[in-house]
Specification:
CATH class of the largest domain in chain B: Alpha Beta
CATH superfamily of the largest domain in chain A: Aldolase class I
CATH architecture of the largest domain in chain B: 2-Layer Sandwich
Radius of gyration of chain A: 17 Å
Oligomer: heterotrimer
Strand order of the largest sheet of chain B: 1-2-5-4-13
Number of strands of chain B: 20
Mean pLDDT of chain B: 97
Shape of chain A: globular
Number of helices of chain B: 18
Number of strands of chain A: 7
Helix content of chain B: 25-40%
Low-confidence stretches of chain A: 168-174
Largest sheet of chain B: 5 strands, antiparallel
CATH superfamily of the largest domain in chain B: Sulfite Reductase Hemoprotein, domain 1
Largest interface: A-B, 42 and 44 residues
Structural class of chain B: alpha+beta
Strand content of chain B: 15-25%
Helix content of chain A: 25-40%
Chains: A alpha/beta (174), B alpha+beta (551), C alpha+beta (112)
Strand order of the largest sheet of chain A: 1-7-6-5-4-3-2
Largest sheet of chain A: 7 strands, mixed
CATH architecture of the largest domain in chain A: Alpha-Beta Barrel
Radius of gyration of chain B: 23 Å
Number of helices of chain A: 7
Order of helices and strands of chain A: EEEHEHEHEHEHHH
CATH topology of the largest domain in chain A: TIM Barrel
Chain lengths: 174, 551, 112
């Protein structure tokens, strides 16, 4: 597997904990939401560098209590067409103001790279052979019709009526 | 009409390049069929029974002569010389090659057209009144809002992988010609007491195996808030819509499970959180888009035109055509002409390349180079001067397009059925043709009056049979095609679900059944009473007796 | 153990590049000519055809391969409505489709 960086943020390496395992002091670890809900006190006592793994069906409200304390959220897609993962990322960013890394793992396609980035994802855990396709997909479009997580509040509709219009119309992403 | 700027142009060009790359990767085996299928579907490319099928978007059913000429050229060059106009006001080609599809998309992009989001679990082409911006009974032209929705929904980062497809319809007229209550979201343009424009918002309508009429969750939404409100509705659906069973994945099932009131409450709560997040576009953008839809400057003429009346007295078909195929334009002395794509012996909704060129030429001459597609699978020439009607009808008639049956029994919606569609359980088109054969007399049709007959070849209901005054559903009964008849549906402002009358028939029996139903109506109707009104007054019993007890 | 089958079967698919309906022949090639379709009438035989078909699918020649019931009178033909329609072309356009063998013969090269 290879880590594809969508947003350009610096990705940390986290070790995924076994069930009921606790982190070493100061260790960067990745735990499931269930595990975190059960052992949050002891986990956060040992380390502040915690990432949480959530499924696409996780109700976003379940994440609220941890948003200020985890550094990283890994959203696992059982299948690439499960759009709930996109709404989860949007919620984390917009509703909870989460600033840490959001990663997509599981089954996602290179052709979803820009959808992921624009919904608020920073990185993708993907098979090695897909690396190039992901990179290519990221460069595909240069402007978007929606106000999203990468446009600094500027959709095409907003750009059309702003000063930097000419520049943006011709610019490609990447 | 809307015209692309550099942004639109760059986005569509990038999309074509992306699809070309996807097709290449598929051919090389870098994408599996399982992975490629949703990607090609998002570009409107299906695999049907005989070949691939490409569905090209005609956004809100409006196109120019230039675009129609291009659609005809594509039919000639990449297909078998014809196309099929659909109930989402789109056109589909039945025989394109996968490897040539990127070239087709390039040719479409050249005339500012595309095929994206005509399939797949995303927001589909927004449909509207085919007479939008041209009809006399309208509050406001809905097309600028449909264009806003087109742009907002195109490659939406959050709503491109929904539980299921998602259809929005919008109307600005008192008479609902867009079946808005049968959509995932239906929007009706309204003016409030202050004269401001807004929308009544309806959610959770849909056909398929669980037909549901949509429910109003907001009486008046200010126009400036449209996109953020849609976003709120979609977010609730994307998060909570069922993904375990594709027959229960549409928003109608979620709205039903939660209750419309609760769905409305969730939407409002979400909307209040997000309405200031710059989802809605600046006022200048709305103005920019509206400017493309400024009505053409037409001279006010008299509605009484001597030579039209004279010709109508001489020619009964023209007289019927005048009555059925024209709709009053907002400018006096003008009409909107519906060209029936339901000729006798034809395939409902099909047009040949030559006919497409011909209609495009007519539009250049008589309708400001503008053409519309209706969800009832006909073509429209808007803004036509009444005095030109005899000439137009003669030209249409000479090209096999003079049928005067719009709104009558043979102006059917018919899905492609098992003649083309991989999902179908029975054929639809031959049933439509057999019924058209049985009622092949304009005087008889005219006497029967307005009657909407709709035929689907499977429970997915692409032929809108649930909304038919007479609805026919084809099913597979132990390997044989079998046809069920339902009565009393409506897709209009008084939307109702058709009710199943009884057991099904074979392909001959169903035609007899339709004839018996019509006979009951003719025998029982009161002065000036249309079929649907008679059915509503009498209920199903007399129809059931006539259809099932006769033998 | 091969699964039970109901009568003889043939393999139908669509070609990947143009979507055209094709049938698998005895030697594992694909032909638009249904009369040349390989037919198996034992569970083992059908399984062997399916294995061969899935190899073609994996090498990206065809998609949607499936074993379907066949009639085996004078020549092989699909027994069910839907696949019969695929073999013939749309019933409402007899001027098109694969039943117009003369038109289709010319480009009926049997790539494998």
């Amino acid at each position: 597997m290879t880590l594809i960086n969508l947003s350009g943020i610096h990705s940390e390496t986290y070790r995924e904990l076994e069930n009921d395992e606790l982190p070493a002091t100061g260790e960067s670890v990745l735990v499931s939401l269930g595990q975190l809900q059960e052992n949050s006190t002891s986990i956060f006592e040992l380390t502040s560098s915690v990432g949480v793994i959530v499924n696409t069906e996780t109700p976003y409200a379940d994440l609220e209590e941890f948003v200020g304390r985890v550094a990283f959220v890994d959203i696992r897609f059982p299948v690439f067409g499960d759009g709930r993962g996109f709404s989860l990322a949007v919620r984390l960013r917009k509703d909870f103001g989460f600033k840490g890394e959001i990663r997509a793992s599981g089954h996602v396609l290179p052709d979803q790279a820009l959808f992921l980035l624009r919904a608020g994802f920073d990185s993708v855990d993907a098979p090695d052979e897909r690396h190039e396709a992901f990179e290519a997909a990221l460069k595909r479009f240069g402007a978007f019709y929606q106000t999203d997580m990468i446009g600094h509040g500027k959709s095409v509709a907003h750009l059309r009526h702003s000063a930097d219009k000419d520049k943006s119309a011709t610019q490609k992403a990447g | 009409m809307y015209a692309y700027d550099t942004f639109d142009r760059n986005i569509i060009d990038a999309r074509v390049a992306e699809f070309r790359d996807q097709v290449e990767r598929r051919m090389k085996g870098e994408l599996t069929e399982e992975e490629f299928r949703p990607l090609r579907l998002m570009n409107g490319l299906y695999l049907q029974l005989h070949a691939y099928m490409l569905r090209v978007a005609v956004p809100y059913g409006t196109m120019s002569s230039k675009q129609m000429h291009r659609l005809a050229d594509i039919a000639t060059k990449y297909d078998k010389g014809y196309g099929h106009f659909t109930t989402r006001q789109n056109i589909q080609y039945n025989w394109p090659k996968l490897v040539e599809t990127p070239d087709i998309l390039t040719e479409l992009a050249d005339v500012e057209m595309h095929a994206h989001q005509t399939s797949g679990n995303c927001i589909r082409n927004t449909t509207t009144d085919q007479f939008a911006g041209a009809t006399r009974d309208e509050v406001e032209d809905p097309r600028p809002y449909a264009e806003l929705i087109r742009q907002w929904s195109t490659f939406h980062p959050e709503f491109s992988f929904l539980p299921r497809k998602f259809k929005i319809a919008i109307t600005g007229a008192g008479q609902d010609r867009a079946a808005v209550k049968w959509h995932d979201i239906g929007l009706i343009l309204r003016k409030n007491t202050e004269g401001e424009i807004g929308f009544e918002v309806i959610v959770g309508g849909g056909m398929g195996r669980t037909p549901v009429i949509g429910k109003t969750i907001r009486e008046f939404l200010p126009e400036a808030d449209l996109l953020s409100y849609l976003e709120a509705i979609l977010r609730v659906y994307n998060e909570q819509g069922r993904r375990d069973n594709k027959y229960k994945a549409r928003i109608k099932i979620l709205v039903d499970a939660l209750g419309a009131e609760e769905y409305g409450r969730l939407t409002e709560a979400e909307w209040h959180k997000i309405k200031d997040q710059h989802i809605d576009v600046p006022e200048e953008e709305v103005a920019r888009i509206k400017a493309f839809f400024t009505p053409p400057p037409l001279p006010v003429l008299s509605d009484d035109v001597e030579e039209v009346d004279t010709f109508a007295r001489e020619n009964f078909i023209f007289k019927s055509w005048l009555e059925n195929n024209t709709n009053p334009h907002k400018v006096l002395g003008h009409v909107n002409v519906t060209i029936s794509l339901k000729p006798h012996d034809g395939i409902p909704g099909d047009a040949t390349d030559a006919q497409m060129h011909f209609v495009a030429d007519l539009a250049e001459k008589y309708s400001q180079s503008e053409i519309r597609v209706s969800h009832e699978q006909n073509l429209i020439l808007p803004h036509v001067a009444k005095k030109d009607l005899p000439e137009i009808w003669k030209a249409l008639d000479a090209n096999g397009l003079g049928s005067a049956n719009v709104g009558l029994l043979t102006d059917m919606i018919v899905c492609p059925g098992m003649d083309y569609c991989a999902l179908a359980n029975a054929r639809s088109i031959p049933i439509g043709q057999a019924i058209a054969d049985r009622f092949d007399d304009i005087r008889r049709l005219q006497d029967i009056g307005p009657l909407k007959l709709k035929i689907s070849g499977c429970i997915n209901s692409c032929g809108h049979h649930h909304a038919g005054h007479i609805g026919i559903l084809g099913v597979d009964r132990r390997g044989e095609e079998n046809y069920q008849i339902s009565l009393g549906g409506s897709g209009a402002e008084d939307a109702t679900k058709a009710a199943l009358l009884g057991p099904g028939f074979d392909e001959h029996g169903i035609v007899d059944a339709v004839e018996k139903v019509v006979a009951v109506y003719l025998g029982e109707r009161e002065e000036g009473e249309e079929f649907l009104a008679t059915y509503r007054r009498l209920g199903p019993t007399p129809f059931k007796e006539a259809v099932y007890d006769a033998d | 153990m091969a699964k039970k089958i109901k009568g003889p079967q043939l393999i139908i698919a669509n070609r990947l590049d143009d979507g055209r309906v094709v049938f698998m022949t005895e030697n594992g090639n694909w032909t638009p000519d249904v009369a040349r379709a390989a037919v198996a009438d034992t569970p083992e035989g059908v399984e062997a055809l399916e294995v061969q078909a899935s190899t073609s699918e994996k090498s990206n020649l065809v998609v949607d391969t499936q074993a379907v019931p066949a009639e085996t009178g004078d020549a092989a033909f699909p027994a069910h409505m839907k696949q019969a329609m695929q073999a013939k072309g749309p019933s409402v356009r007899p001027d098109l489709g694969y039943q117009v063998s003369k038109t289709w013969e010319t480009d009926a090269q049997e790539g494998n």
